[in-house]
Specification:
The protein is of the alpha/beta class. It has one domain: NAD(P)-binding Rossmann-like Domain (Rossmann fold, 3-Layer(aba) Sandwich), CATH 3.40.50.720. It contains 6 helices and 9 strands. It has a 7-stranded parallel beta sheet, with helices on both faces. A two-stranded parallel sheet has the order 7-8. It is globular.
Length: 233
């Protein structure tokens, strides 16, 4: 059985990606710190395991052991888990920078490396980036650490696509504009985004299943605004 793996799938966009894939009878493995507690199961194809991507000490060995035990292969991976802190550039601490980079970049790196041997030819690795990390886009005060981490994830996308092309694995990054999520509301309480997490989750699920037929190694803006003047969250 082919499996689709999603990080940060207990709320927001990740939860909606998960629900959209399950609605198409795809087997989904959700990875998060709160696996099994935040949401109910959506059926026999809905699997969940705990994994703290922010912890340098925790590795994905339990996930790899589970995959071996179930004899499952991976058809798609969505590196969706993210951390956003709104801090002025002259006030952000190294600890806060490290928190964001641990989840947004290093966590995605460690997990993707671990899951690589389980990916079948034709598998799609999809990194969820941000317009803030898209080169040439408008940048917003308070998002220097977050935007820099998403820029790094976008660059990793291009590198991975080249390195893993001979395995038949395709890698892309969707640079999202503002989407109404709990994470966005916490960082910008008075901001109302133009898209809901349901709308974006359904779009990402579709792109995960079909986008790698048309794209590889691409950083693609997904925003209602011009990249040079619009939402860079």
């Amino acid at each position: 059985m082919d499996l689709f793996v999603i990080t940060g799938a207990n709320r927001g966009i990740g939860l909606e990606i998960r629900k959209a894939l399950l609605a198409q009878n795809k087997a989904v493995l959700s990875l998060s710190r709160s696996a099994g507690t935040a949401t109910a199961s959506f059926g026999p194809l809905d699997f969940r395991l705990g994994l703290d991507l922010a912890s340098a000490e925790e590795n994905p060995s339990r996930v790899l052991d589970w995959l071996r035990e179930k004899d499952l292969s991976i058809k798609g991976l969505v590196n969706n888990a993210g951390l956003l802190l709104n801090r002025p550039a002259d006030q952000i601490t190294l600890e806060e920078m490290h928190q964001m980079w641990s989840v947004n970049v290093l966590g995605a790196l460690r997990l993707t490396q671990g899951l690589l041997p389980f990916m079948v030819p034709g598998a799609h690795v999809l990194n969820i980036g941000s317009m803030g990390g898209f080169q040439g886009s408008r940048k917003y005060p308070g998002l220097s650490g977050y935007s820099a981490s998403k820029a790094a994830l976008a660059n990793l996308t291009e590198c991975w696509a080249e390195e893993w092309a001979d395995r038949g694995i395709r890698v892309n990054c969707l640079a999202l504009g503002a989407v109404q999520t709990d994470m966005l509301s916490s960082a910008f309480p008075n901001y109302i985004a133009p898209l809901s997490s349901i709308e974006m989750g359904e779009y990402i699920a579709h792109f995960l299943l079909e986008g790698h037929r048309f794209y590889n190694g691409k950083i693609l803006p997904v925003s209602l605004s011009n990249p040079n003047s619009g939402d860079a969250l």
